[in-house]
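hey so i finaly got around to running the thing on Glucose-1-phosphate adenylyltransferase from Keguizhuia sedimenti. pasting the sequence first so u can double check i didnt mess up the copy paste, my clipboard has been acting weird all day
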Amino acid sequence: MNRPYTARRLPERTVALVLAGGRGSRLQQLTDRRAKPAVHFGGKFRIIDFALSNCVNSGIRRIGVLTQYKSHSLLRHLQRGWAFLRGEMNEFIDLLPAQQRVDEALWYRGTSDAIYQNIDIVKSYRPDYVLVLAGDHIYKMDYSLMLLDHVEQGAGCTVGCVEVPRMEATALGVMHVDENRRITAFLEKPKDPPAMPGKPDTALGSMGIYVFSAEYLYQLLNEEMQNPNTNHDFGKDIIPRVVREGRAVAHPLGMSSVPYSQDTPAYWRDVGTVDAFWAANLDLASNMPELNLYDEDWPIWTHQQQLPPAKFTPDTSGNHGKTANTLVSGGCIIAGSDLTQAVLFSNVRVHSYCTISQAVILPSCEIGEGCRLHKVVIDRGVIIPPGLVVGEDPELDAKRFYRTDNGVVLITCEMLEKL
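ok and heres what it spat out for the 3d tokens, dont ask me to read them lol
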């Protein structure tokens, strides 16, 4: 096999299907109006931008996005920010909302059913390989290397996997592998995840990334539809069956993570809880963030509104504020306030005399004069009244807002309206 030639051609023979229909209920009120993949992240992006950017940067430019739950925000983002692919060159992002194609009484019943209900569309692309992706994780990965590994291993299905702390794997599929990376057992979201051999505090978790040989996937989906005792889910049904048939191979993220360096730990985050979302955003404002957004060789693409530069002005007394370890996006205006460890998304206004720390402030928010905000996530469009104090009295915070066990306080418009 000519590896370089094969690696270049495989993305052209592949279709990526991004599963973006989930609500993400663990994000609490952040997903009341939008699906989890449409949640804002990193100052100017949406969560789904990372999976889509990995596709484009890997050379995969035939992409279907399957949506269901409260998809308007997501669809609008894709239409505005991802319309640059060229249809005349067989490049596209197809939007595949749940539309009861197979049964007029049923929406998508699970991840595998979502693809089965669009199987005629998938077949019309005539792919040799189908890359199935979750649209709600943060990472940078070269899928062409995973495709090459799939072909060289002769697998029916290759499962992307990552080492995670053992008890964090309760929200993931967990697998056992042999010395050749063949998966010998697969457990979906176990309450007591099994540890890796020799690593009692670590489990091997599924990233929700699968490469299938196309004909094998069609066979699996068709046969699953004949089974009355199915959850219509990849993790619960399809992958365990492939494991039983001995055709599943694990692909560790370290084999294809970006940047291509053994000295750089592979980065992957499930930002599915308020705590994890808050922590992953704030890490971007640290001195040396684990996720490099400044890598020009692997850019993260997104829809970007045309906004004026961020501006810092004195407060109403003419004094300047202080800013440290803070990301500030376009359209923001900060007037003489102190900001430490914060991520400000687009069009945020901070009035005079505020003290803000460990804060993630989503787009179009306004922080009134004299506020003290610590360890908060503020939803899009929230107007914080002057003088509000959050993060100093845990009991008061829990009465007014949503407060996690870790002390992160989520503030939404609806919560403020009830004060």
